[in-house]
Amino acid sequence: MIVLAAEFLKSATDARGWPPPGPPELAFCGRSNVGKSSALNALAARKSLARVSRTPGRTRLINFFDVRAAEKTRSGGRGEEHHVVFADLPGYGYAAGSREERETWRPMIEEYLTGRETLEALVVLVDGELGAQPSDIEMVRWGEALQHRVVVAATKLDKLARNRRNQQLDRIAGQLAVPRVVGFSAREHFGVDDLWRELVTAGETAGPSPV
Description:
Blueprint: E1 2-12, E2 25-30, H1 36-44, E3 62-72, E4 78-88, H2 99-115, E5 119-127, H3 134-145, E6 149-155, H4 162-176, E7 182-183, H5 192-203
Parallel strand pairs: 2-4, 2-5, 5-6, 6-7
Antiparallel strand pairs: 1-3, 3-4
């Protein structure tokens, strides 16, 4: 995939701050410190589109990013173009902040997942080294219950030996009861095209993407 443009749109805590409905929206979620910001930057081919923090639980808002990309042809040229919005949701499982702050995050995410009309898929990022945790399973089931398309990617696979990666992906797929898990590493930059293909397919459920 060739990224043509990627820019931060805005941050919001509730529906009053969401961007106006537009291109298909893809929501990224995962446990705190799963590497969500690094994954977003890799997908957008930008070093600092999403802020990477060493402190888990730093994302306390829903951050929206406008991304335009084109499929790469066999000759290396540009093919079909796609226009999507990435929504970066606060991490779950751990939060650096007061209990009162943490208790506001679930309602914020729930409002978004149940009320965002342009949301086309929930992208659940799982730590590929650790495997799926109970909160990951809960998030996948929640997305399915809301009838969203759920895409699962296992991050940080560079921490595993290459001969263990496929086995770990199968293990995580079994833990989550999903047909496929995309292997991903922002550090080694593999799985980016595979995940983009899943995102494009998800976005196409809304019909042709405006470009």
